[in-house]
Amino acid sequence: MLSHLEIETPAGDALIDITDQVRATVAASGVAAGLCALIVPHTTAGITLNSNLDEATSTDILAELRRLVPTRVDFVHQYDTPADAAAHIKATLVGNSVSLAIDEGELQVGWSQSILFYEFDGPRKRQLQVKIIAG
Predict the structure, then answer these.
(1) Residue 37 backbone zone (phi > 0: left; psi -120 to 50: alpha; other: beta)
(2) Higher-scoring residue by pLDDT: 109, 83
(3) What is the reported pTM?
């Protein structure tokens, strides 16, 4: 079963907790055991698992990615904007997919883990593919 989640993102870069939406999608699928694959079909966005217990964690992660890959005008590829070029590199570093187990109808994430959607070039209307495989 392939589902899609719609995500509206703010301007610039952001980390958005989508754990509840993914859990709801898993519950609606009726799959008791299997795999949930989350795929970001965008070149300027990504996805990861990390803590969302303290809002400062997201602030630190975004700040560190900005430090590692600042928006600058000396990128060779400038098709859209310097921010777009930096976003391509950040998305490559973060990755575009996460796979999680489903057991007893529940998404298996650690007690402090959240599913975080990265926006690197907002505002955008994004889509997340959610592939649920029974087994």
Answers:
(1) beta
(2) 109
(3) 0.92
Examine residue 123 and say whether the peptide bond preceding it is cis (omega within 30 degrees of 0).
Answer: yes
CB 98 within 8 A of CB 78: no
The percentage of the chain sitting over the pLDDT mark of 70, rounded to a whole number, equals 96
> Domains in the chain: how many in total?
1
Q: Are strands 113-122 and 2-8 parallel, antiparallel or unpaired?
A: unpaired
In order of 11, 78, 112, the CA distances from 16 in angstroms are 12, 27, 15
- Domain that residue 6 falls in: 2-134
100 pLDDT more than 80? yes
Number of separate helices (H) and strands (E) present in the chain: 3, 8
Q: What is the CATH number of the domain that holds 56?
A: 2.60.120.460
Confidence of residue 57 (pLDDT cuts 50, 70, 90): very high
Judge whether residue 75 has pLDDT over 90. no
Contact, 95 vs 46, CB < 8 A? Answer: yes
* Pairing verdict, β 113-122 and 45-51: antiparallel
